[in-house]
Design goal:
The chain is of the alpha/beta class and 372 residues long. It folds into two domains: 81 residues, Ubiquitin-like (UB roll) (Roll); 199 residues, Glycoside hydrolase/deacetylase (TIM Barrel). It has twelve helices and 20 strands. The strands form five sheets. Strands 13, 14, 15, 18, 19 and 20 form a six-stranded parallel β-sheet that branches. The longest helix is centred in the N-terminal third of the chain and has 28 residues.
C-alpha cells in the first residue's frame, strides 16, 4: 500500500528505544552484580570487624584477641629492655612486651576485641635478668645469671647468716614483698595502711625503735592490720664502722622496743643504710633475727616524683622480689601517691603482695601482749 514503508519505525528509532530483551538482560546482570557485592560486603562484615589500634583503623577477624594484634604486627609500641642486676642495659628490646589497654582498661593477651574496640599500647617494662648464687671461699656471691655482674657478697659459714639481697626462690609463684622503712610516722603510716587494706595487700614495716615508742598506737595498728614488723635499729644509726657496744645496743634494744610497743616479735632485721659486717651478722644471729635487704630500690627517699617511684618498683619486678619504700624519715607524699599505681600494676601482672615471712615460707611472726 502506498505509504506503508513510511509507517515502519526507522532503525535509528529502534536502536534509540532499545531492545526490550536486551534491557531485561542488562537489568538482570546489574541485579546479580549488586547482589554479589552486597553478599561479599555482608560476608566480610561477618568475618571482619573494625578496631582502632593506637589511632589507626584495622580490620581484624571476629573473635580476635590482643594476642592476634601482636601476631599481626599491629601493636607498634616496643618491648622493654633486659637489664643487668645493677640496672645497666643488657639486651635492648628483650624485656616485657608492650603494655596494652582496651577501652582504657589493662588487657592481657587473651582479652577479646569487640566491634569498634579502641586499643592503645605503650612501651613494655624493663626486666632485670635472673640471678644465681655460688659459694666462693667463705662468701656467698650472687650474680646476674646472664651478665655475671655481682649483685651481693656476704660472709656465711662462720656466723651462719645469709643476707637476703636477691629475689627469693618462690617456686615460680608470683609473690612479692613490699617493705617500708623508718616508721611509724604520723600522718603517713596510716595512709599507707589504708591503701594496702583497700587492695588486700600485705607488707613488712621495718620500724625504728624510738619511733615505735613515740607512736605506740601506730605501731599497734600496723600489727592489727595484719602486717609484719621488722627491726630497723633503735635510732637508725649506721653500724658498719660502729663499736661493738653500739651494734649490740642498736639491734638488740631496737628489737626489744619494737616488740614492746607493737606487740609483735620481729623476725627480720634490716640494717640502716643496708650495710653489714661479720659482727653485725653475728648479733643478728644471736638475737634470732634474719637479715633482709632488698632487690628493688624505689629511691623514694630522694623524692624523684611519683612516676619515677612507680617505674622503679615495677621495672624489674619478678617472683620473689623485695621492694624498698619508706613510710617515715621525712615527707613521703610521693610514695603514698605512687603506692596505688604500684599495687595495681602488680595485680595486673598476676602478683600477690605478701609479708617477708610468707615470701620465705616462714610462719607468721609471734604476737605478744604490749607493755607500755
Amino acid at each position: 500500500m502506498p505509504g506503508a514503508k513510511d509507517r515502519r519505525p526507522s532503525r535509528a528509532l529502534v536502536e534509540l528505544r532499545g531492545s526490550p530483551r536486551r534491557g531485561r538482560r542488562l537489568g538482570t546482570v546489574l541485579g546479580i552484580a549488586a547482589a554479589v557485592v552486597a553478599a561479599a560486603a555482608i560476608t566480610f562484615l561477618l568475618v571482619r570487624q573494625p578496631v582502632t589500634v593506637d589511632g589507626r583503623t584495622a580490620w581484624i577477624a571476629r573473635g580476635a584477641t590482643v594476642a592476634s594484634l601482636r601476631a599481626d604486627g599491629l601493636i607498634v609500641s616496643p618491648p622493654g629492655d633486659l637489664l643487668t642486676v645493677k640496672g645497666a642495659l643488657l639486651r635492648k628490646g628483650a624485656g616485657g612486651q608492650a603494655v596494652v589497654a582496651v577501652g582504657g582498661s589493662a588487657a592481657t593477651s587473651t582479652t577479646p576485641l569487640a566491634f569498634g574496640a579502641v586499643v592503645t599500647s605503650r612501651r613494655g617494662p624493663d626486666v632485670t635478668e635472673p640471678t644465681t648464687s655460688k659459694i666462693v671461699g667463705a662468701d656467698k656471691v650472687t650474680v646476674g645469671a646472664i651478665s655475671g655482674v655481682e649483685l651481693s657478697r656476704v660472709t656465711v659459714g662462720e656466723y651462719g647468716v645469709t643476707v637476703t639481697t636477691a629475689p627469693v626462690d618462690t617456686g615460680g609463684r608470683k609473690l612479692v614483698a613490699l617493705t617500708f622503712d623508718d616508721g611509724p610516722w604520723q600522718g603517713q603510716t596510716q595512709k599507707i595502711l589504708d591503701i594496702l587494706l583497700r587492695y588486700h595487700a600485705k607488707a613488712t614495716f621495718f620500724m625504728i625503735g624510738r619511733q615505735a615508742e613515740h607512736l605506740p598506737y601506730l605501731s599497734r595498728l600496723v600489727v592489727a592490720d595484719g602486717m609484719e614488723v621488722g627491726d630497723h635499729t633503735q635510732s637508725h644509726k649506721a653500724l658498719l664502722h660502729a663499736s661493738k657496744a653500739t651494734v649490740t645496743y642498736e639491734i638488740g634494744v631496737g628489737a626489744t622496743t619494737i616488740r614492746r610497743y607493737s606487740g609483735a616479735v620481729p623476725t627480720w632485721y634490716r640494717p640502716a643504710g643496708g650495710t653489714t659486717d661479720p659482727f653485725i651478722l653475728s648479733e643478728a644471729r644471736r638475737l634470732d633475727l634474719r637479715v633482709a635487704l632488698w632487690t628493688l630500690d624505689t629511691e623514694d627517699w630522694t623524692k624523684p616524683g611519683t612516676a619515677a617511684i612507680v617505674k622503679k618498683a615495677l621495672g624489674g619486678v619478678q617472683p620473689g622480689s623485695i621492694v624498698l619504700m619508706h613510710d617515715g624519715g621525712g615527707d613521703r607524699s610521693q610514695t603514698i601517691a605512687a603506692l596505688p599505681q604500684i599495687i595495681q600494676g602488680l595485680i595486673a601482672r598476676g602478683y600477690k603482695m605478701v609479708t617477708l615471712s610468707e615470701l620465705n615460707g616462714l610462719p607468721p611472726q609471734k604476737i605478744v601482749a604490749q607493755r607500755h
